[in-house]
Amino acid sequence: MAEAHQAVAFQFTVTPEGIDLQLSHQALTEIYLSGVRSWKKRIVRLKNSVITGVYPASPSSWLFVVIAILATMYTRSDPSMGLIAKIQEHLPVSTQCQAVVSAVLFSTMLWLLLIFTMRLCLKQLLSYHRWMFEQHGKMSNTTKVWALVRIFSGRKPLLYSYQGSLPNLPLPTTKDTVKRYLESVRPLMDDTQFERMTKLATEFETTLGNRLQWYLKLKALWAANYVSDWWEEYVYLRGRSPIMVNSNYYGMDFLYVTPTPIQAARAGNTIHAMLLYRRKLNKEEIKPVSTVIPLCAAQCERMFNTTRTPGEETDTVQHWQDSDYVAVYHRGRYFRLRVYHSGRLLSPREIEFQIQRILDDTSPPSKGEEKLGALTAGDRIPWAKARVKYFSSGVNKRSLDCIEKAAFFVTLDDDEQGMMGDDPAASLDRYAKSLLHGKCYDRWFDKSFSVVFYKNGKNGMNAEHSWADAPVVAHLWEYALATDSFQLGYNAEGHCKGEVDSSLPKPQKLNWEIPPECEELISQSLAVAQNLADDVDFHVFSFRDFGKGKVKKCRVSPDAFIQIALQLAYYRERGSFCLTYEASMTRLFREGRTETVRSCTSESSAFVQALDGEEPADVSRRLFRAASEKHQQLYRMAMTGAGIDRHLFCLYVVSKYLGEESPFLKEVADDGYGVSYCIVGDNMINFHISCKHSCPQTDAHKFGAQIRKALRDILQLLSPNQQEKEPKKTGESRPEVKKDQ
């Protein structure tokens, strides 16, 4: 009951003498400070909106233009060519002020015109992508002129400064998409199959395709991005199967470094670092991510205070402007942990102190509370119905609101994970599976992301996919781990640095009233999720024979090198090729997300067959170069809006709206491998391989062995005279985010 009393700002009792009103000054003070913090954030957002709205100019440039125009008036010259006089005639002010006011109005209009011109120029410059296709060391005159982008890009941009200047995603023609599609499936079909597919494609292009394309042209003119809203809705939010495993992805801790073995301390630093990132995000102090040109930052907006809400037909993504607490799960109980006190962010040591209070709390979970999170792990329709029936009022609604409106979700896990024990390879597999699905009820899979802290000090995260893609979450994760280890640090005992305010209220345990009928639904969702988790075959390994250093010495793109190695590994295992999906970002465009690179090409299949055949080494090397260049070409085309799959996807959506069926638009298989890799420095590549136990043709560990052999064989082919040496184990490591491939 103590927590309940702390949660209210006043109490009153009816007595014979009247009403005895008791106000909690501490609670009222917190309400006041919370309001002040909220208004400060509104002011910052308003200021940033002004700065971003006039970018690449600055608000102070308005004053410069006004002074310049006023100065010309005193020299008896008229740069306005009579416009100032025209404005002056229509001003209802005194004669002494007319000249100054009219000059200021003209200056403001001139300033806005200059901003519009600069932004138009910047948008045209950001729309130029031919620089990506030019050979290294050779730059065309057009690209040299394009380099003027730096002149128009302004100084010290905020996170969202470029948003208004980013170009819209271009809509490819149906003819080009069909042509590239046929080219992508050619190595997967025999002559008879390909002839049939060519007929279907030609028929589609000349009939239904043109009609569907007309609707997409209308959408491309009207919307900033003709793909992203449908992609979010139909690929993610309308999916009725579990988002655990099927959609959500994970991020790992450093593999070879654990800053502290103390669970609460690791949580204290990491949670504090993430809230520092949120502060920078709110103030737009994070620099826009850039390749040569800036990338769209729209996905960052819903990183914190966000949840996916289930519905019977479709889910929705809900985002709140602010939240002063995180939701914490430990041993079947849910807690509200406030991260602000007296108007300030808690220090890492104070968060550690609060986390330790939760770890030391021996109270049992409420009836039905322990496995409640399984509802977010099972099918979406049962969860949607249960949410309406059992969580739409009373104490359950208040507790559910607390979880959904939290800044993010935290799990304090009693297990120990990481690379450890006598079998570090197997321990990595267990670590990955734990982050992917845990016990199927100890994560809140609907939250934008959940952070997991293990008993031995390792951590990791699980992220929901609909609101953003893995690179956006990876930026947050790398910031948090770097800040935790290299800025905040720990004392000699492994605890967070700093002092603790003794007046901190205890974390508030959430209350639930779960009826037996709801417990049955929880059990059913858990059974579905457990079957899904048990079917996941996972293998994680660090390839340390070489990394991008030796690959670059062969003058080959590391990404193309790995993708072709994956083709070789699959062919050696199956004796055939398969449709291959590699994700490429389209964030060069406004609201861009991803596009598919179809990595299996005629060039890559020719190389694979030559290497495993009787062809001489020089022929195989030539074919590899062709395959590598083809892959790079496809990757650049995907990045610049000339991909295949997103256009076909949108054509498919339009066909469903019109009630039209096309045998040309078909689905993708679900019985292959998912491979994610992270190139770590010059001497290491980390691989994450997943498949399903229920598919008899796949085995994650066997495929991992094939990948190792393929990598070695290709490097040996490209550098036959280079003696391979084991790189020194420097302990180099970086965090990883595993995404679905």
TrEMBL record:
UniProt keyword terms in alphabetical order: Acyltransferase, Fatty acid metabolism, Lipid metabolism, Membrane, Mitochondrion, Transferase, Transmembrane, Transmembrane helix, Transport
Bilayer topology term: Multi-pass membrane protein
An annotated Gene Ontology molecular function: carnitine O-palmitoyltransferase activity
Domain Carnitine O-palmitoyltransferase N-terminal: residue ranges: 1-47
Ranges for region Disordered: 718-741
Keyword RNA-binding recorded: no
An annotated GO cellular component: mitochondrial outer membrane
Enzyme class: transferase
Keyword set includes Lyase: no
PROSITE patterns: ACYLTRANSF_C_2 (PS00440)
GO biological process entries: carnitine metabolic process; fatty acid beta-oxidation
Compartments (UniProt record): Mitochondrion outer membrane
Pfam families, per database record: Carn_acyltransf, CPT_N
InterPro entries membership: Carn_acyl_trans, CAT-like_dom_sf, Cho/carn_acyl_trans, Cho/carn_acyl_trans_2, CPT_N
Primary location group: mitochondrion
Limits of the Choline/carnitine acyltransferase domain: 169-667
EC nos: 2.3.1.21
Active site feature: H465 (proton acceptor)
UniProt catalytic activity: (R)-carnitine + hexadecanoyl-CoA = O-hexadecanoyl-(R)-carnitine + CoA
Regions that span the bilayer: 50-74, 99-122
Biased composition (Basic and acidic residues): 723-741
Pathway(s) served: Lipid metabolism; fatty acid beta-oxidation
Family of this protein: Belongs to the carnitine/choline acetyltransferase family.
Protein name: carnitine O-palmitoyltransferase
Phylogenetic lineage: Eukaryota, Metazoa, Chordata, Craniata, Vertebrata
